[in-house]
Amino acid sequence: MRLIGWAIALAAAGMTPAAAQNTATAPAQNSAAAAAPTSSVTPSAGTAQNPGQPDAGQPAIVYGSVGHALPTPGIGQPDGRKGIQDQVTPTGNEALAFHNNWLLTLCAIISVVVLVLLIVALVRFRRGANPTPSRNSHNTLIEVVWTLLPVLILVAIAIPSIRLLRHQYSPPPADLTVKVTGHQWYWSYELPDYGVTFDSYMLKEKNDPTRQSNQRPRTDADGPPLLAVDNRLVIPAGKVVKFIVTADDVIHSFAVPAFWIKQDANPGQLHETWAVTSREGVYFGQCSELCGARHGFMPIAVEVTSPAKFAQWVAQNGGHMPGAKAAAASTTATAAAAQPNTGGTAAGNAPPAPAVPGSAVANTAPAPNNKNVSNRTNQ
Ligand SMILES: [Cu+2]
Q: pLDDT digit string (tens) for 106-143?
């Protein structure tokens, strides 16, 4: 009888085995609660077990190469430990020390003191021990103490807190500027001084029914589920990176926990944050503002690499290094100036050679955006 009941229920819900599988995977794809990755990253497993298929027209993925560096388990991603992620920037380390060494200690001391006071009051001043209650209504010393002590505690918290805020919002001169734009539901990045622009989408799981056939599935070498992206932002180690953050539709938030960065991305506004780290690796984050149906599916992946590899990544993406561009322009201008003037005027009275197309004047114009890696159709 019970079996018949189950059969009827399954039939009513249209639960064919395939449908059952889809429904089983759907919550994992559609629930923000699934954001906590459970699989550990095995750097060597990605290439051997699940190489994935590159998009049509895209170069094959070489895991471990620049732009596809292998994530380190527990660094730049949640790994089940409680507390704040390991920090890799100066402000992150300052904040971590402030939280762990000062705020938590202070909270613990206050909690213990209040608990002791409660227990003393319960025991010493219970009705059984005090049949005739005290009629005191004032005690000047106690009143001064319970007014001054909280003020001192707040000052002790405020001073390091404001110092941390000042360090967060007074960045040193930037070596590199990245414009970050939030969209529903992906990120786009622009390095205006390098002529690199691209979009960054979440990589879907291999068995995700919404993944299109030309979309490369996620592998462990890309990063944890719901955090791995097709195109990572690559920045050089040891360089101060300024992030100019905005959005083009609704409010998003650009957050990378290991950098101690969380900056709202508002349409029509430019907000600024910054990071510098000498620790190479891959650092993941997520949009941290409820921005719509697929808010949980627009992760951030930042790869920190050596300046030489960063230059390689820029070249791979059709960009140019600012110094190289200026040097090339200067060489072109010098060569143009050295050309004999054959314009037909008297040799002795020839005017200075005009700038030829492609000379320094032309080359100082902003480089056009290279939409070289923004041809995704991941929606
Ligand atoms: Cu968002």
A: 999 999 999 999 999 999 989 888 888 888 888 999 99
Per-residue confidence band for 150, with pLDDT thresholds at 50, 70 and 90: very high
> What was the pLDDT predicted at 60?
78
Residue type, position 75, single letter? I
Please tell me the distance between residue 22's alpha carbon and the centre of ligand 1 in angstroms: 26
Where residue 38 falls (left for φ over 0; alpha for ψ -120 to 50; beta otherwise) is alpha
Ligand 1 centre distance from Cα of residue 251 (Å): 7
Distance from Cα 188 to the centre of ligand 1, integer Å: 12
* Rounded CA separation 372/233 (Å): 14
**Ligand 1 centroid from CA 187, angstroms:** 8
Q: Which residues lie at CB < 5 A from ion ligand 1? A: 252, 287, 291
Strands (DSSP E) found in 159-239: 176-183, 186-191, 196-200, 233-236
**Centroid of ligand 1 to alpha carbon of 226 (angstroms):** 14
> Structure tokens of 205?
């799981």
Neighbours of 316 (CB within 10 A): 16
Cα gap 51→64, rounded to integer Å? 13
Question: Inter-axis angle of helices 140-169 and 90-97, to 10 degrees?
Answer: 170
Distance (angstroms) between ligand 1 centre and the Cα of 41 equals 25
Alpha helices in 31-71 (DSSP H): 45-49
What's the CA-to-centroid distance between 107 and ligand 1, angstroms? 33
Asked whether 303 and 227 are in contact (CB, 8 A), the reply is: no
Output the pLDDT for position 130: 85
